[in-house]
Specification:
Helix content: 25-40%
Largest sheet: 3 strands, parallel
Mean pLDDT: 95
Strand order of the largest sheet: 3-4-5
Radius of gyration: 18 Å
Number of domains: 1
Order of helices and strands: EEEHEHEHEEEEH
CATH topology: TIM Barrel
Low-confidence stretches: none
Shape: globular
CATH class: Alpha Beta
């Protein structure tokens, strides 16, 4: 039974070298400014390409969807090029990689992205913080409470849906 996890597997139209999956983990290593995936991220994921499938860290579909500092995006050309570097490295190492698309909704602060969070309702997430890097010499993150979100309009909802669609279409 144990050998099965090491065996190859066909998932839809994908041939996987094994049945291991690397789950997503937020890392906050995107280059600034612009929340751009970088060579360090490409190396990180390529080093883990012994898994049959890798699911990347959460990646915001828009600036509005960002909730934590230095997380990568998929909404600018520079970010797309950064992810191409990462996917190329993982594919070269023989694995498959999927991008976890992300919009944090009410779990954000204007201190993260300069924007008031949006959510289905204007209810603040209780006892919830997000982290920023405030330029302290230690380079450590500082946790700040989330802000009260603005209730989304129908137009906001359509925009966020379109952002997810656009993010999913990126190479």
């Amino acid at each position: 039974m144990m050998e099965k996890i090491f065996s190859s597997y066909r998932l839809g139209n994908l041939d996987l070298k094994n049945r291991f999956l690397m789950a997503p983990m937020t890392r906050s290593r995107a280059s600034q400014p612009g929340d751009v995936p970088n060579a360090l991220m490409a190396e990180y994921y390529a080093q883990r390409a012994s898994a049959g499938i890798i699911i990347t860290e959460a990646t915001q579909v828009s600036m509005q969807g960002m909730g934590y500092a230095k997380t990568p995006g998929i909404y600018s050309q520079e970010q797309i090029e950064g992810w191409k570097l990462t996917t190329g490295a993982v594919h070269q190492a023989g694995s498959k990689i999927f991008l976890q698309l992300w919009h944090v909704g009410r779990v954000s602060s204007a201190k993260v992205n300069g924007l008031q969070p949006i959510a289905p309702s204007a209810i603040t997430a209780k006892e919830t913080s997000v982290y920023i890097f405030d330029g302290a010499p230690s380079g450590d993150a500082t946790f700040v409470p989330v802000d009260e979100p603005r209730e989304m309009t129908r137009e906001d909802i359509a925009t966020v849906v379109a952002e997810f669609v656009q993010g999913a279409k990126m190479p």
